[in-house]
Amino acid sequence: MDHFLYRDGALYAEDVPVAEIAAAVGTPFYVYSTATLKRHFSLFDEALGWADHLVCFAMKSLSNQAVIKLLGDAGAGMDVVSGGEYMRAKAAGVPGDRIVFSGVGKTADEMRLAIEGGIRQFNVESEPEMIMLDRVAQSLGAVVPITVRVNPDVDAKTHAKIATGKSENKFGIPISRAREVYAMAGTMPGLKVIGIDVHIGSQLTELAPFEAAYRKVAELTEQLRADGHEIKRLDLGGGLGIPYARSNEAPPLPTDYGALIQRTVGHLGCEIEIEPGRLISGNAGLMVSKVIYVKSGEDRDFLILDGAMNDLIRPAMYDAWHDIIPVKEPAPGAAPAKYDIVGPVCESGDTFAKGREMPAVQADDLVAFRSAGAYGAVMASEYNSRPLIPEVLVDKDQFAVIRARPTYEEMIARDTLPMWLE
Ligand code: LLP
């Protein structure tokens, strides 16, 4: 469910006409709904109501300060994967004891930053990383809480580029070696083992892979406890998928997911942490773009938009589908047109959709890409020297630019000439 609906013939973001934002901000831009973000966070929060828990928003999906602040104020923790995300979480006022540090390649500098600033736990992904973290912690006179991310070797049944839980993936340590690695952690004076971490992939549309992974985690919990470790927290990762096409069958809901967690690991009495990104932010955002030209090709029509792959890379990178709808509501019964929908970047890969049926539109019309809140703005670039796409937040009838589009001058001024070229 989201808060982008047609009303009086026009698409609204909550109570603001999308066209009004376009007139003020220019296109393309992202717009997020406060109500949707909050609602999706609370769905997870309520789904885990049976346990002591923390829902840590995966900031990699959408890391604008305003979004972090509003989720943090609602009680969310943050899952960060870099020093930059850690600093963003802190800058938005999220306390260190609600920040979890994940990621396969944390550097000593990033570890130091988080230990000094306060951290809930590190999710350690390898032995060399564990050795480094122990060294950094000891050098600061700290004992840091850790979980070890185990790779349960289950097939997440998602796009290969976003599956992480198979043994061929770079993530975590093989679950078969977990006891050994925990034994090693137990000897390190700078580390305090507190739990287990697992994350098997993103955009999962079935519960079965989660179930397989969580059962393995439950078994491991008992083994590690028998080995003398204190396992009191389970970080079960993110990954629950969203419906990208309105016509698709809806994936399982957070409630079903919460019930599954209770069924598989509830008996262990652990504190539960999850790291959802996409399900909180995905359907909370649109990318809005303008049609520059409608071009008739030999055997097809092209819709050439002012948004491009540098603004939303998911179709080029993951063959992702995003529903694309006109901002002006189509008349009932209007005949659909068929387009290849592309951006102006000089690459064939700059294609959002091929042979897409949608209501006919014309030059200067606005279109909205649905489900673009997650992994949209955060993956945007300035390729082809297209100034970084701005972001807007709506809350009921108000909207605000939460990241402005740089001017050409600002974009160019980030480069500096070496003295010998001046
Ligand atoms: N936790 C960890 C350790 C992760 O690696 C990820 C996502 C998440 C949580 C959040 O997963 P989510 O709930 O959002 O599925 N750029 C890709 C997605 C990459 C996901 C990477 N890891 C896309 O646009 O589909």
Report on this structure.
The protein has 422 residues and is an alpha/beta fold. The protein has two domains: 4-31 and 282-413, Lyase, Ornithine Decarboxylase, Chain A, domain 1 (Beta Barrel), CATH 2.40.37.10; 33-280, TIM Barrel (Alpha-Beta Barrel). The chain contains twelve helices and 21 strands. Strands 4, 14, 15, 16, 17, 18, 19, 20 and 21 form a nine-stranded mixed sheet that branches. Strands 5-6-7-8-9-11-12-13 form an eight-stranded parallel beta barrel, surrounded by five helices. Strands 1-2-3 form a three-stranded antiparallel sheet. Helix 2 (34-47) runs parallel beside helix 9 (254-265). The longest helix is centred in the middle third of the chain and has 19 residues, at 208-226. The structure holds ligand LLP. Ligand LLP is lined by residues 58, 61, 79, 102, 162, 199, 202-203, 237-239, 275-279, 314, 318, 374-375.
In short:
By secondary structure, this protein is of the alpha/beta class. The chain has helices at 18-25, 34-47, 65-73, 83-91, 108-117, 127-139, 178-186, 208-226, 254-265, 278-281, 314-318, 408-413; strands at 4-7, 10-13, 16-17, 29-33, 53-58, 77-80, 99-101, 121-124, 144-151, 173-174, 191-197, 233-235, 271-274, 285-296, 301-305, 324-326, 336-342, 351-359, 366-369, 391-395, 398-403. The protein has two domains: 4-31 and 282-413, Lyase, Ornithine Decarboxylase, Chain A, domain 1, CATH 2.40.37.10; 33-280, TIM Barrel (Alpha-Beta Barrel).
